[in-house]
Amino acid sequence: MLIRREVLDKIAEGSVTLQFRRWQRPTVRAGGTLRTSHGVLAIAAVEPIALAKITAAEARRAGSPSLAALRAELAGHEGTVYRIALALAGADPRVALREALPDAGQTTELRAKLERLPWAAELLRTIAAQPGVRAPDLAAAAGLPTPNFKARVRRLKELGLTESLIVGYRLSPRGQVLLATLPER
Fold first, then answer.
1. Residue 12 burial (CB < 10 Å; 0-12/13-18/19+)?
2. Cα dihedral sign, 132-91-25-61
3. Residues 87-123: tens digit of each pLDDT
4. Do 151 and 138 meet the contact criterion of CB atoms below 8 Å apart?
């Protein structure tokens, strides 16, 4: 579920507690979480609702300028309308992880994980050499479809080795330390 930056700002300050989406099937579930650039969101509820049943108060809680604007936005899509109750649950744990420099034992563990990902070391080198380059450009240079390339970067991000920029990626401090321990090509 994508949420615009200005809405994420309002969720973080607590003035937005709902979102509405029209989906064929929900992409989030009650009790789950969603990582965003502002931190982790807790999903409290995901409920189908008739478009006509949405109230003006709910539209305001969703950060919409008006009920009419929210209904118009939702009317432009197909599927069932869902009301999603959410709140900021805390910081994204990957942020702290990518700043934490690995000790010798953690470096050994990370290297073992990378050995199971035969493409990982080369991808780390590519990102290190070309920070801030668009994902489609990096994907094309690697001979991969962009979605496959991004999936690989997300796996490295889960290990705290990369971070997303407004455009492209860069190695995190943790990733830089690990890359320095890897054998040359």
1. middle
2. negative
3. 999 988 888 888 889 999 999 999 999 999 999 999 9
4. no
pLDDT reported for residue 95: 83
For 44, 93, 108, 121, the CA distances from 112, given in Å and listed in that order, are 37, 22, 6, 11
Predicted TM-score of the model (pTM): 0.69
**Between 173-181 and 104-115, two packed helices, what is the crossing angle to 10 degrees?**
80
Handedness of CA 83, 88, 89, 95 (dihedral sign): positive
Written as six digits, the tokens of 57 are 């108060």
Question: Contacts from 50-56 at CB under 8 Å and sequence distance 24+?
Answer: 50/81, 51/75, 51/81, 54/20, 54/81, 54/83
Sheet containing 80-90: which strands, arranged edge to edge? 18-23, 80-90, 39-48, 33-36
CA distance 120 to 34: 25
DSSP 8-state code for residue 183: P
